[in-house]
Design brief:
heterodimer, A: about 250 residues, alpha/beta, four-stranded antiparallel beta sheet, 11 helices, B: about 350 residues, mainly alpha, two-stranded antiparallel sheet, 15 helices
Chain lengths: ~250, ~350
């Protein structure tokens, strides 16, 4: 469904992403892992076009998307969250979520900001994530975990086919972590394809169908969780630490 | 896994009740009659001319309405979208010169030409915005200042529009007591229209997108908002309002000249009015324009036409912003103490 071919992103002399290629199968949960500085987030940014890749191709459902502007990519059904939750302060949670709904053409632009059908849909999503009670709260008053959930709700508002989650569990407490794992799994059960960057190995091993391991900007391993765990190159990249603990 | 059990009727009912409560609260914090009453009062005000000479009062209202239009227009780009432009008087000039030259050559009133001047300014705004809106923050502010300088040099040396001397426009033939009337009504209606339009824009999909851009442009873009088109459109619309005001202002002064329109003071005034009133709010530019015009007149009357009056206005401005950092309307709304009559958002 999502295919990345020979993606490169250079910052001056630094090759943050260097000839990185992998695919994400429809309906799967694929994890992108790697030590700090491996280029995971940069690869994410290149896919969603938040930054412009130096070279390489990204294909979504047979359509090349690496030259499109970010909002076009979102319209094509690829939505992402950010590592550090970027919300729109001074706007309520409901407005934050509805800001992500689809706007087509000129006539839509001057329609009322929030139609009742959109409010219903947004409230349904907040309900799904269990945060309806903060719907009218200002976006800047939320806790870190609530922001993560709000990001997820906003993501779903755009009717994505594939979602890219950048560290959804970063900095959240264990019980909320379980909740987020549950949400991701249920979304995946409904047919949503997920690509996820995460440092929490426990979560990765439980959740993902496939793991892509990056180190120094390039893919060093790619396979099922149990395969990746045994892979010597991966163990090497992690200096033998994290994966064994998780196992 | 436990969270999906919430789709029960009791929860839905509770949510509905909560939403209704919020809507009722919004109704209670709003007083729609107030702006309408003010508008009606101003429309009736010229009747004063039957009992004496109140040309000065009419001039002040007209002058304030002109700035309300411009500040509201500026607010669409500077307040909603978060792009501070110090070059909006360029649209004031384009509107003024466009309508003024047609008036001088063909004798068509600028009041009729104002909408057309707005369209012309929107077109210029679109083209300029395509270039300058690629920059953000301080770079954008500097690009807007550069725009004023370019326009000033162009108009100063363009002999077709009289260069630095400008062009005299035919004065109205109405008797002195009623001479201000057409311009007075034109500006009051224009000001009302600009406030209504900024309310409509703020509450549209477009406005929601603009507000998202002002908070976090990268997030807005990845949320599926076509930020480039939104920004350029906001620039064009805000230029159109300033241009419409400029068109009528030229005929009112019976003169178009670069140093009427292309003074940096004009664009700084728009910015200060929005910041004092509260940028990004609908009522803010109106309150700001009223207060700044009042302060100016008061200090000119009491302190004379020296530099001291400018100093006094500056001091009041600085004091106001110490106590109202988000502007008067913005700060009061944030702390929940905004009087109902000023809640136009």
């Amino acid at each position: 469904m999502l295919e990345v071919k020979g993606l490169c992103k250079h910052f001056g002399g630094i090759r943050a992403v260097d000839n990185c290629s992998f695919t994400v199968e429809r309906g799967s949960i694929t994890a992108l892992i790697g030590p700090n500085g491996a280029g995971k987030t940069t690869a994410f940014n290149c896919i969603s076009r938040t930054t412009r890749p130096t070279s390489g191709e990204v294909w979504l459902d047979g359509e090349r998307i690496d030259h499109l502007r970010p909002h076009r990519i979102t319209r094509l059904g690829l939505s992402r969250t950010f590592q550090i939750s970027r919300n729109l302060a001074d706007m309520t949670v409901l407005e934050n979520v509805i800001a992500q709904s689809r706007v087509e053409g000129w006539r839509d632009l001057f329609k009322p900001a929030m139609s009742s059908s959109e409010i219903d849909k947004a409230m349904g999503l907040l309900d799904f994530l269990g945060i309806t009670r903060i719907a009218h709260e200002d976006g800047s008053n939320l806790s870190y975990g609530q922001k993560k959930l709000m990001d997820l709700a906003a993501l779903l508002m755009s009717d994505p086919k594939i979602i890219l989650l950048d560290e959804p569990a970063g900095g959240v407490n264990p019980s909320l972590l379980e909740e987020i794992v549950g949400h991701i799994r249920r979304l995946n059960d409904q047919g949503l394809t997920v690509l996820i960057v995460e440092h929490n190995m426990d979560l990765i091993m439980r959740l993902s169908h496939r793991i892509v391991v990056m180190a120094q900007g390039t893919v060093i391993a790619d396979g099922r969780p149990d395969e990746v765990r045994e892979n010597p190159a991966v163990l090497d990249a992690y200096l033998g630490g994290v994966l064994e603990e998780a196992a | 896994m436990t969270m999906s059990l919430d789709q029960t009727s009791s929860v839905l009912a509770a949510r509905k009740a909560h939403n209704e409560k919020l809507a009722a609260r919004a109704d209670k914090t709003r007083a729609v009659w107030f702006p309408w009453t003010v508008l009606a009062l101003f429309l009736a005000l010229p009747a004063l001319q039957f009992v004496g000479n109140y040309n000065y009062v009419l001039h002040l209202v007209l002058f304030t309405a002109c700035y309300v239009t411009m500040a509201s227009g500026w607010n669409i780009l500077g307040g909603f979208t978060g792009y501070i432009s110090l070059g909006h008087n360029v649209f004031f000039a384009i509107g003024g010169y466009f309508a003024g030259m047609i008036l001088a050559r063909y004798g068509i009133s600028t009041i009729l030409l104002a909408p057309l001047a707005g369209v012309v300014c929107a077109a210029f705004g679109y083209l300029i915005g395509r270039v300058t809106l690629k920059t953000r923050g301080p770079s954008f502010i500097i690009s807007s200042l550069a725009l004023v300088m370019i326009a000033r040099i162009l108009f100063d040396h363009w002999s077709f529009v009289g260069g630095a001397n400008g062009v005299a426009l035919p004065a109205t033939e109405l008797p002195l007591a009623w001479a201000k009337l057409p311009y007075y009504y034109a500006f009051v209606v224009l000001a009302a229209f600009s406030v209504w339009a900024s309310y409509k824009i703020k509450h549209s999909k477009f406005g929601l997108g603009l507000r998202a851009i002002s908070k976090d442009e990268i997030k807005a873009e990845s949320a599926g908002i076509d930020t480039r088109t939104y920004k350029v459109l906001a620039f064009a619309i805000s230029g159109a309002f300033v241009g419409m005001a400029g068109a009528i202002w030229g005929e009112y002064l019976t003169y178009i000249r670069p140093n009427i329109f292309l003074l940096i003071l004009v664009s700084v005034n728009m910015v200060l009015m929005c910041i004092l009133g509260g940028k990004g709010t609908v009522a803010g530019p109106v309150i700001g324009a009223v207060l700044i015009v009042i302060f100016n007149e008061l200090f000119v009357a009491t302190l004379g036409a020296s530099e001291i009056n400018i100093l006094a206005t500056g001091a009041v401005m600085a004091l106001a912003l110490m106590f109202f950092p988000l502007g008067i309307v913005g700060t009061l709304a944030r702390s929940g103490r905004l009087p109902r009559v000023l809640n136009w958002d």
